[in-house]
Design brief:
The protein is of the alpha/beta class. The chain contains 15 helices and 16 strands. The protein has helices at about 55-65, 105-115, 120-140, 150-160, 185-200, 215-225, 240-250, 260-270, 285-295, 305, 320-325, 345-360, 365-370, 375-380, 410-420; strands at about 10-20, 25-40, 45-55, 70-80, 85-90, 140-145, 165-170, 170, 205, 230-235, 275-280, 300, 330-335, 400, 435-440, 440-445. A seven-stranded mixed sheet has the order 3-2-1-4-14-15-16. The chain has a six-stranded parallel sheet with strand order 8-9-10-11-12-13. The protein has a three-stranded parallel sheet with strand order 5-6-7. The two termini are about 25 Å apart. About 50% of the residues are buried.
């Protein structure tokens, strides 16, 4: 495509909310964002854009309005936010997210695993990946850490079709799994070696969790992952029943007879490190928190999945983010599709705030929820210098959401609350909150026209 078709500058007239910290957002009412064309091409062959400037509309137009190569786009009735990151989700569980969830282990064996087995078919996997990629764009999620099935092509298809900055891994299941969903150690390690070598930092070694993965497979898999700069992701301490089950299994194994905690098992398997993301981490002792902090592992907190069963969650409990922060552990938000019922990070942010405030944990704010689903997960994935919020030089990845009428004297947290959960809108309808999603300055989803 010829560069002349693409202006050097694009200016969007809109409200702007730019997450900076857990307690700080830049909020520009009546603002404008300037994008700058770069030399780098997107996958479509069009030049990519980065954020270049932002401020009040009158100031921006005075500064850039006379540029020769310029496009001005009116989005004054909308608010611009950075696109979302979802730090923990299973794209191969999309169709079981609303199945009955009496308990984690029962839900896995009755619904999740039989559905994941369907991904053995490359055609089925390919078709589902194409559809799921559209769902991600629709909810404004352009990055995160994702679990496939145990089939290698579920990783290939996700990496091929999911637009943005995603890390993917095929789950490893070599023991205590149904026959139709069990790998040999050799096959599992061959697959890890192959994908790690090909995809490097876009691949994640993904033991489903300790009960389904032999410890020697985790150890050898970690060697390949570390050699190629891959991520590592798995589940940790989601329910008390799970912890008891894990410890009862591992205390019968040589070398693990005296383990005192779930986290210690992973530590002995060598999978904890600065590129490790542990899903959930609800029931952790002080010693476990110290291990995670020392190894610099991160936690993906999934409030909608862990929510009470009446709220369509698994009823696992509530992650103590304050305790994690005190231990200096990195954490960010995830939808945990399909344990979580809805893909929209707006739903996840709402659940995070609502559940904590019920327990009088006032540090859970909408500003914090936004930061933990944009900039913080980008930093955990090692790409925060390039994306995660609306700062000059970062990729122009962003979404537009309808702006509620501003109230006099309102602070940004109150405004975000009304933005994230409009009155009268059901949780299922949060998927329709995003009206437009931009990747590197180009609209990839829109229902404005």
């Amino acid at each position: 495509m010829e560069r002349s078709f693409f202006p050097k500058f694009k200016i969007f007239l809109c409200q702007i909310i730019n997450p900076l910290k857990d307690d700080k957002c830049q909020w520009i009412d009546g603002g404008a964002v300037v994008l700058l064309r770069t030399q780098k091409l997107s996958l479509s062959g069009a030049p990519s854009y980065v954020f270049h400037d932002k401020g009040q509309e009158k100031d921006i137009l005075r500064k850039y309005g006379s540029k020769r190569s310029l496009e001005i786009i009116d989005r004054k009735s909308f608010t611009l936010l950075p696109s979302f990151f979802d730090l923990h989700f299973h794209w191969v569980q999309d169709e079981v997210r609303l199945m009955p969830k009496k308990s984690l282990l029962e839900w896995l064996s009755k619904h999740t695993w039989p559905y994941e087995a369907k991904f053995k078919s490359k055609y089925f996997s390919l078709r589902k990946a194409k559809g799921f990629s559209k769902e991600l764009l629709k909810v404004g999620t352009l990055g995160g850490a994702c679990y496939g099935s145990l089939h290698g092509h579920s990783v290939d298809h996700g990496i091929e079709f999911f637009e943005g900055d995603f890390v993917l891994g095929n789950v490893i299941m070599t023991m205590n799994s149904p026959d139709y969903l069990t790998q040999s150690k050799e096959n599992a390690l061959d697959l890890i070696r192959e994908k790690a070598k090909i995809f490097k930092s876009k691949y994640a070694l993904t033991p489903r969790f300790a009960p389904t993965t032999h410890p020697d497979v985790m150890k050898k898999g970690a060697f390949f992952a570390n050699r190629h700069g891959c991520f590592i992701q798995t589940h940790l301490s989601e329910t008390k029943q799970e912890i008891e089950y894990v410890l009862s299994l591992y205390r019968q194994m040589d070398g693990f007879n005296k383990v005192k905690s779930y986290t210690e098992i992973y530590q002995k398997c060598g999978i904890l490190g600065p590129k490790t993301i542990m899903g959930h981490g609800i029931y952790l002792s002080e010693k476990e928190l110290k291990i995670l902090s020392k190894t610099k592992a991160a936690i993906a907190h999934c409030p909608t999945s862990n929510a009470p069963v009446k709220d369509k969650g698994l009823g696992s409990g509530l992650f103590d983010f304050e305790k994690a922060e005190k231990a200096k552990i990195k954490w960010a938000l995830g939808s945990d599709i399909g344990g979580g019922p809805f893909l929209s990070m707006f739903d996840v942010i709402n659940s995070f705030v609502k559940q904590n405030r019920k327990k009088k944990v006032w540090g859970a704010t909408f500003v914090k929820g936004l930061n933990r689903s944009t900039l913080v997960p980008a930093n955990i994935l090692g790409i925060g210098e390039n994306t995660g919020n609306i700062e000059a030089g970062k990729w122009a990845n962003f979404i537009f959401v309808p702006s509620p009428p501003k109230k006099k004297g309102e602070d940004v947290d109150s405004f975000l609350k009304r933005l994230c959960s409009p009155k009268g809108l059901s949780r299922n309808d949060y998927k329709d909150l995003v009206v437009e999603t931009f990747l590197k300055g180009h609209s990839r989803y829109s229902h404005l026209n």
